[in-house]
Amino acid sequence: MGENIFTGIASGLSGLLDGAGVPVLWNDVILMVVKLVAILVFILVNALWLVYMERKVAAYVQCRIGPNRVGPKGLLQTAADIGKLLSKEFTWNKYWDIVPYILAPVLIFVPPFMIYAVLPFGENMAAIDMNIGLFYFAAVASLTSIILWAGGWASNNKYSLVGAMRVVAQMVSYELPLVLALLGVVMLTGTLNMSEIVYAQENVWFIFTQPLAFLIYFVAGLAETNRTPFCLVEGESEIIAGPYTEYSGMGFAMFFLTEYASVMLISAMCTVAFLGGWLAPFGLTFIPSWLWFFLKMYVMIFIFMWVRWTYPRLRVDQLMGFGWKVLIPLCLANIFVTGVGMYIYRAIGW
Amino acid sequence: MLSDWGAVFLFLAIGVVFGAGGIVTSFLFHPYRRTETKQEVYECGVDTVGPTWVQFKTGYFLYALLFVIFDVETIYLYPWAVKFQSLGLFAFIEMIIFIFILIVGLWYAWKEGALEWK
Questions:
Q1: Other beta carbons less than 10 A from residue A64's beta carbon
Q2: Does A106 touch chain B if contact means CB atoms closer than 8 Å?
Q3: ipTM of the prediction
Q4: Average pLDDT of chain A?
Q5: Is residue B77 situated within a structural domain?
Q6: Which of A217, A313, B63, B99 has its CA 20 to 30 A from that of A284?
Q7: Is residue B116 part of a domain?
Q8: CATH of the domain at B70
Q9: In a domain, B40, yes or no
Q10: How many interchain CB pairs under 8 A, A with B?
Q11: Which chain A residues are closer than 8 Å to B23 by Cβ?
Q12: Under 8 Å between Cβ of B63 and A173
């Protein structure tokens, strides 16, 4: 029940347009725009909820109550915050490099949004079933650092500059472990298509066959989304808010939205690559596949938040040293062990 | 038929429109009160000293250079990993040699202190 609700809506709409005599190309375009708007709404609603959830988790970790004034149990807190940010002045500064300064918040949301296009939210529920999905993820995800750098540099603010430098150094260093960790999964499946990667986990999830890759991916994911313990980029006590220091109002809100969109994205990718995507564990198939995906994604997001409010921030030298001296050699070792392991596995002939 | 990349372009276009729309919408709502102080750089409350756009610490650039090398390696590793199961032992050993050369490079950078944060 409910299993085919979204695919059913899509094919129903397609049939309806077909019946109305719409050409195939326009039929596809209209269908894609509908999917796109659905994904956009999904991101926005979840980001609203995640900000609230983050504050609640933080509160309970620290034995507080958290937001509880606006709306029932404080649920409308984030909506009120967005309203406030929308009505705040976009201050103008005479020292900015104005073009990249404005472009950064406009473009910052684009890379994560583009990656959501290839995520399989359920069986046959990827907006674009791309044959090189995983590679596309790696390629587009790395664009974020350029945009953050543009914003930080154009602000003409010393804190922004230090923050932007740290963003580039950190994201560049941890992108390698992130991408190399996913390589083990690719070796096991022999495909870059995300749906096929999920299908390959029908018997055993890759978290069990690639535990090291999962850990590396998790740590690198924390660093890629600039979250504590890797939040040097916006270390409040030292550089105010890093590259976002000069941004006010909606400009800041776009960066904030993107942070939560990225957290969700990294968790969703983790679900696809290691936790069996939308596959139901223990044969519990009466729960629809998209709900399984959603549940697994939220478990990962919760762990992200848990880590954030448990560990203190690292120093820059520890951060870079850990990335280059520990994670990258471990990644290469993982690739080697996976390769040898697959040959042994084949030789034994299980 | 809409190709995959056509659909990606749609996502790109709507993403940019969404970002621009958010900023423009806020322009409709928010007040404009420009003052001399508000147009200053937001640092510590006192006037900023010296230019911001200066030559920066080279440590960051060493990491960027290393990143380029390893990222190119990753581009070669991905097609190999996709075809790993059908390529056979020869390709596996070749890739081990390839990775080994890169590890030597990493070791050299390590030895020369490029990975130390000073």
A1: 12
A2: yes
A3: 0.86
A4: 85
A5: yes
A6: A217
A7: no
A8: 1.20.58.1610
A9: yes
A10: 199
A11: 90, 102, 105-106, 250-251, 254
A12: yes
Cβ-Cβ contacts under 8 Å for B11 (sequence gap 6 or more): A36, A113, A114, A116, A117, A127
Q: Are A259 and A225 in contact (CB under 8 A)?
A: yes
Residue A288, preceding peptide bond in cis (omega within 30° of 0): no
- What are the Cα distances from residue A283, in Å, to A276, A278, A288, A336? 13, 12, 12, 33
Structure tokens at A17: 């347009």
- The kind and range of the H/E element at B88 are none
Number of domains in chain B: 1
Residues of chain A with pLDDT > 90, as a percent, come to 7
Residue A166: per-residue pLDDT: 84
Q: Would an 8 Å CB–CB cutoff place B101 in contact with chain A?
A: no
Owning domain of residue B18: 4-111
Q: Strand (E) positions, A196-294?
A: none
Whether the per-residue pLDDT at A1 is higher than 60: the answer is no
Taking an 8 Å cut-off on Cβ atoms, the answer to whether B10 and A157 are in contact is no
pLDDT surpasses 70 at A322: yes
Rounded CA-CA distance A68/A262 in Å is 26
Tokens of A315: 């120093």
Of A347, A346, A337, the closest CA to residue A183 belongs to A337
Q: How far apart are CA A177 and CA A181, in angstroms?
A: 6
Question: Reduced to 3 states, what is the DSSP secondary structure of residue B25?
Answer: helix
Q: Which residue has the tokens 């709507």?
A: B14
Residue with the two structure tokens 């976002």: A244
Residues of chain B with C-beta less than 8 angstroms from the C-beta of A321 = 115-117
Q: Between helices A24-61 and A5-19, what is the axis angle to 10°?
A: 160
b (16+ CB within 10 A) / e for B14-45: bbbebbeebbeebeeebeeeeeeeeeebbbee
- Tens of pLDDT, residues A190-202: 888 888 888 888 8
Q: Please choose, from the candidates A274, A270, A292, A303, the residue with its C-alpha nearest in 3D space to the C-alpha of residue A209.
A: A274
Nearest Cα residue to A121 out of A200, A192, A43: A43
CB A305 within 8 A of CB A155: no
Chain segment A16-33, per-residue pLDDT in tens: 887 877 787 888 888 888
How far is residue B36 CA from its own chain's centroid? Answer: 36
Q: Indicate whether B57 belongs to any domain.
A: yes
pTM score of the predicted model: 0.89
Give me B9's structure tokens: 């372009």
Q: How far apart are CA A239 and CA B43, in angstroms?
A: 9
Q: Inter-chain contact B10–A89, Cβ cutoff 8 Å?
A: no
